[in-house]
Amino acid sequence: MPKALRKTRKSTATKSTSSKVAAKRRKSKKPRQPTTPVSRQRAGRVASPLPAAALKPERIRQILERLDERYPNVTCALNHQSAWELLVATILSAQCTDATVNKVTPELFKKYPTPAAFAALKPEELEPDIRPTGFFRNKSKSLVGAAKGVMQDFGGQVPDEMDQLLTLPGVARKTANVVLGTWFKKAVGVVVDTHVHRISRRLELTRSDNPKDIEQDLMKVIPPAKWIDFSHQIIHHGRAVCVARKPKCAECNLENLCHAADKTWSTVEIHKSAK
Ligand code: SF4
Predict the structure, then answer these.
(1) Which of 116, 180, 188, 206 could form a disulfide with 217 if both were Cys (CB 3.0 to 4.6 A apart)?
(2) What whole-number distance in Å separates Cα of residue 78 and Cα of residue 35?
(3) Is the pLDDT confidence value at 258 over 80?
(4) Domains delineated in the chain
């Protein structure tokens, strides 16, 4: 074979081999892992930081003042006569409206008036009484377990310390904060329910989606003296005005302090990540 032809064939072969390798590499190439905070943000793996102005004490003060104006003297909407009844009502309120819990509890507390009465039950015996509140099998287990804990470990009295409350079945920080704040008037933390979760994000008091972290973020910016009222007020605001779908922004007295991405009406600039 002439030398020139051999050279051409060789170069064609080399070319096609290298383009195959390149194609293979392209195919097998894994997406690059984001390495910097900015690239991780772009990839949606960490929340973008809150704007510095969002956490300024003056803005927080205005939010708290306006909540006080709109919701003076608000308290927990769950009917109760004792720490035990409030604990039971709060456990029942998971994934259920307070109105439904308030319909169920009068009969329930008439039938089983004390923690001892609950502790003597098998969870199955309690199920029909709390069925309308949903998730009644798990809630029955929690209530009977909590009653046994109260009887065995705390002499029949609901404890007034966070770490002790957390030992009771079915009691996490939200329930413990409700009992401590509403009944014992102890501001140990901030109740983070679905309304506090949603509105704290809309108001850019947190970017987190995790209730524990949201509580920590709120505890950093809300003065401890306002922890109890703030949760009650935000829960009322979430029911009446800042509802999940189509918040009633035109009726909201926090409107010009709020840059939420899903506002239905706004006089201020919208922040896309405020949601
Ligand atoms: S302005 Fe709208 S989104 Fe913001 S807190 Fe008020 S109701 Fe909620």
Answers:
(1) 206
(2) 47
(3) yes
(4) 55-73+190-257 (1.10.1670.10), 83-183 (1.10.340.30)
